[in-house]
Amino acid sequence: MREIRALLTVFRGSSAEQLIKYANGFDILILPNDKVKDSKKLIDMIADGTYDYVLSFGQRPNIKNKVYIETTARNRESSTGTNFDCEALQRSFESNGISAKISHNAGTSYCNCLYYNGLKYIQQNNLKTNMVFINIPFLKNIDDIDLFFTKGLETISSVMSFRG
After folding, report:
1. d(CA 164, CA 38)
2. Are 10 and 30 in contact (CB under 8 A)?
């Protein structure tokens, strides 16, 4: 059986950047918080089509101890959706003790821009890559950071293994 390749993206200086301390078995891309450069760096990484999964993480204000799984990215009047099984991911988070909400609004800034450009590139180039964007809380809104990140990455790994 072929090894599953996964890329984890995080924004520099965000709570999601702390996630990489717990991320084994993933390629990591730390983004500079520049809408143009972020998208270019992502596309450069996935252009060869070798990634099965792209898991992009951002932070969402006003949430505590839960994740938001984003289904849709928008660019003015245009929108695009993920091919990732968000409901399966939600169930897996919940079964691992992490509250998860399906969201259809990746925001209006960096997260949404990266997600939109990544999804459009994947679709336009017929890549077999599954991309999903997950928003996590600010660090101050996570009661047990070690447990939250460890369980979160275990959840993601388990979903990829039965989806791969």
Report:
1. 26
2. yes
pLDDT per position as a tens digit, 48-66:
999 999 999 999 989 999 9
d(CA 94, CA 38): 30
Q: Which domains does the chain have, with CATH numbers?
A: 6-163 (3.40.630.20)
Please provide the distance, in angstroms rounded to a whole number, between the alpha carbons at the two ends of the chain. Answer: 10
| 134 contacts 56 by C-beta, under 8 angstroms | yes
pTM over 0.90: yes
3-class SS of residue 138: coil
Q: How many CA atoms lie within 13 A of 117 on its CB side?
A: 19
**In the 8-state DSSP scheme, what is residue 86?**
H
Q: What is the pLDDT of residues 113-142, one digit of tens each?
A: 999 999 999 999 999 999 999 999 999 999
What is the DSSP secondary-structure string of 15-52? GGGGGGGG--SSEEEEE-S-HHHHHHHHHHHHTTS--S
Can you tell me which residue has the tokens 């060869």?
48
The pair of structure tokens assigned to 164 is 């791969």
State how far Cα 123 lies from the chain centre: 17
